[in-house]
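Posting for a labmate who doesn't have an account.
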Amino acid sequence: MITMQNVRKKYKDFELELSLEIPEGRITGFVGKNGAGKSTAIKLILGLVKPDAGKICVFGNEGGELPAAVKQKIGVSLTEAGFSSQFTVEDVWHILAKMYPDFQKDFFDQKCEALKLPRKKKLKEFSTGMKAKLRVLTAISHKADLLILDEPTAGLDVEARNEILDLLREYIAQDEKRTILITSHISTDLESLCDDIYLIHDGKIILHEDTDVILEQYGILKVNEEQYRTLDKTAVIKVQKETYGYACFTNDRRFYQENYPQIAVEQGGIDELILMMTGGYR
């Protein structure tokens, strides 16, 4: 579906260097701090910016701007992009109907009603949540095989986030070959949705792991100086000094629970993964 081989993009004070593969039928998450390179990676995949080196392949198409036939297969929701604030949902409906031969008119109408998106109201009068729901609905309304979503739930309350996540789950359930690439700062969204996670830091992938493995096997050991000195560090992948001793990030939580019952072992989720691996755990 998507491959990036030794792709590099250099800016004045930042360089992105990525190799990854996103197969058909997967929900993949990009995580990392602001400025890590997640949005740049998405723009490279979409052909919105050109790489300085390396190869990008999307639906078998290599390099450059994506041809119209490939664009028809992709649904996109970018936080900084959208329709004119002077448009209404009805205007959006007509634009989509012209852009996409497979635009699902009845589906779009039904979801607008279910999501309480008024057809006659101008988008400038929409709340943040309404705009976010419309962006995602637009992306899934033409039977796309691939969704690319940049922070689709950012700044939303729990109810609006759940409505968007339900839309995405429904979209996947309709065809198991469909694929989603999503970025988010909200770990619970990714933990409940994604099959695998790429952690991007300072323009590089520093970890790629299945979400289930992160939740079931990763963890944080909190140890004092003496415990750290005698600790088997074979399964420790990151260590940070703390006032009490050390926080140790492990990809084998059970090993330490079984062999070191005297130390504190906490479950590690995506938040802990990001914080520990990028130097921000507290």
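Reply:
Got it, the structure tokens are right above this. The longest helix spans residues 158-173.
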